[in-house]
């Protein structure tokens, strides 16, 4: 029998904003003014909390959480009015959703079995970078097509997909899409460092550097809005002198962009 478990997600038909866990993270940030405290309250690491915040900021197309610099504690985080409105809306919908699920449980075992099957058919992706946008233009080729995607933040990405995929996904100008790029596929370079053949060379600034034993995770705020995360070797990060606030290029080939649709 189905039971309510808080598995409610908010979407405007194009962008998926988040569910109970992420809304709770936003709520804790609003209450504590601290990513560290909010992460502890919801059982996440500091890194995991910032990963969730960056994903929400990207997919929302506008900031939901802002860093606050300075102050007695050296800085913190604050919610934007959009995030506060989102939390309030979620709480209102949550009670109605609970009644819906309880009613659904009364419809019989067949419906329950079908819902479990649909759960198995739901796709998840390991790609770290997921940027919402729309198709800007399509350049047809004999075998592959070049798809220009304008993200909600204003950046333009180029993806190479097969002609069959263009048709199957109905990729035409104005079509809402999600651009997926694995962090390990993104190289980092310095502006003016020479010519490169990669189709995507996005200018931005380093906003976070998370060194590991072998690799370093670097998050770059792209000009126009949004962030992208790259995984580079620790030696490469040191060689480039990567620090917060540094201007860099996020570099990746068009073939490294996976295009997905929500319907």
> What characterizes the major β-sheet?
5 strands, antiparallel
- Order of helices and strands, N to C? EEHHHEEHHEEEHEEEEEHEE
Radius of gyration: 20 Å
The coarse overall form would be globular
CATH superfamily of the largest domain: RNA polymerase II/Efflux pump adaptor protein, barrel-sandwich hybrid domain
For the record, what CATH class of the largest domain applies? Answer: Mainly Beta
Strand order of the largest sheet: 7-6-5-8-14
Task: Count every beta strand, where a strand is a DSSP E run of 2 or more residues.
Answer: 14
- Tell me what the CATH architecture of the largest domain is: Beta Barrel
What is the domain tally? 2
From the helix content, strand content and strand pairing, which structural class follows? alpha+beta
Report on this structure.
It is a single chain. The protein is α+β, with helices and mostly antiparallel strands. The protein has 2 domains: 9-121, Arc Repressor Mutant, subunit A; 124-263, OB fold (Dihydrolipoamide Acetyltransferase, E2P) (Beta Barrel). It is 33% helix and 33% strand. It has helices spanning 20-32, 35-42, 46-60, 81-104, 109-121, 163-168, 234-240; strands at residues 9-11, 16-19, 65-69, 75-79, 129-139, 144-151, 156-162, 176-181, 187-189, 200-211, 215-222, 227-233, 247-252, 258-260. The strands form 4 sheets. Strands 7-6-5-8-14 form a 5-stranded antiparallel β-sheet. Helix 1 (20-32) crosses helix 2. Mean pLDDT is 82; it is low at 1-6, 12-16 and 119-123.
């Amino acid at each position: 029998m189905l039971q309510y478990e808080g598995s409610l997600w908010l979407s405007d038909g194009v962008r998926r904003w988040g569910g109970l866990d992420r809304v709770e993270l936003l709520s804790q940030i609003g209450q504590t003014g601290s990513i560290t405290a909010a992460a502890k309250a919801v059982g996440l690491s500091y890194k995991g909390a910032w990963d969730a915040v960056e994903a929400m900021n990207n997919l929302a197309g506008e900031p939901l959480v802002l860093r606050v610099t300075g102050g007695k504690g050296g800085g913190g985080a604050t919610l934007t009015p959009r995030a506060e409105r989102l939390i309030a809306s979620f709480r209102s919908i949550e009670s109605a959703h609970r009644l819906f699920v309880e009613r659904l449980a009364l419809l019989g075992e067949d419906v329950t079995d079908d819902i479990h099957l649909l759960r198995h058919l739901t796709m998840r992706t390991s790609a770290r970078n997921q940027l919402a946008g729309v198709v800007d233009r399509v350049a047809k080729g004999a075998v592959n097509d070049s798809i220009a995607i304008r993200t909600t933040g204003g950046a333009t990405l180029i993806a190479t997909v097969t002609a069959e995929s263009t048709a199957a996904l109905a990729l035409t100008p104005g079509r809402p899409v999600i651009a997926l790029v694995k962090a390990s596929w993104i190289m980092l370079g310095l502006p003016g460092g020479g010519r490169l053949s990669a189709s995507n060379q996005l200018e931005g600034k380093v906003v976070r550097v998370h060194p590991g034993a072998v690799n370093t995770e670097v998050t770059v705020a792209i000009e126009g809005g949004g962030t992208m995360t790259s995984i580079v070797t620790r030696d490469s990060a040191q060689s480039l002198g990567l620090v917060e606030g540094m201007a860099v290029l996020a570099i990746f080939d068009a073939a490294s962009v996976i295009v997905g649709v929500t319907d």
